[in-house]
Each structure stands twice: as C-alpha cells, then as structure tokens.
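Long-time lurker, finally posting.

We've been working with Type IV pilus assembly PilZ (Sphingobium cloacae) and I want a structural starting point before designing mutants. I don't trust myself to interpret raw outputs, so I'm hoping someone here can both generate the structure tokens and explain anything notable. Sequence follows.
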Amino acid sequence: MQIQRARERITVEIPIVVTTVLDSLEGTIVDLSEGGAQVIGCSLPAKTQCQIDLDGHIVFGTVRWSEEDRMGIRFPYELTEGPLLEKLEMARAARRAPMAAYQPAYNRPSPTPYAPLMQSGFGRRTR
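Top reply, 14 upvotes:
Generated this for you. Predicted structure of Type IV pilus assembly PilZ:
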C-alpha cells in the first residue's frame, strides 16, 4: 500500500544533531520534505518531542515512528526558511538538473580534434 503524501520526499544526506530534554544524538537525514524527515543513525521512541539542529538553526519535531537505527520526524510547521530548507531546495534542483551537467570529463565533447588521443586512457598510444 502506497501512502499519498502532500509533499514530495527528496533523498538527501545531511548530518544533524537531534536533541531532547534528556539526550543529544547525532544522525543523518536521508529523506526530507517541508513537513518532515527520516533520520538514520539514531532513534527515539514514537511521540517524543525533539529538535533538529543544523548549523545552529533549530527545527522542532515529533517522532512519528521509530526503528532500531532510524526514525521519522514530523515538523509541526512546514519549513519556510533556514539552512534545512536551503539544502532541500538544492537537492530538489539537483534532481531536476539535466544529466549532461554531470557527465564525466572523458564523455564530454572535446574542444580540440586532438583531445580524443589524450582520452584513450593511462598514457597508452592508440595509433
């Protein structure tokens, strides 16, 4: 069964600190939307109130589900500003960017007619 979500979740890798009244845990956000995040590397019990700290900017949340090494955190208010939203927007833009921008140098069209000779690999002559 697929859950219909209001916001698209984007795959990211953002190191964060999750803080509660009693604990401070390091984790990594692996998917993110304006309404919540999945964090791996740490877990807290469901319904725990917490805050996510990224570069001194705090986002509050509630743990919705928890497993041994991961948890889902829902934000009470959608992200509208701050470094977490900026990272989400950068990841979203990178996902929409054409793949040609990420082509390795050896696959790009050569600027000179002699460049293919240099790209034959490991200094071996091809002629």
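Before you design anything, note these points.
Helices lie at 83-96, 115-118.
The radius of gyration is 21 Å.
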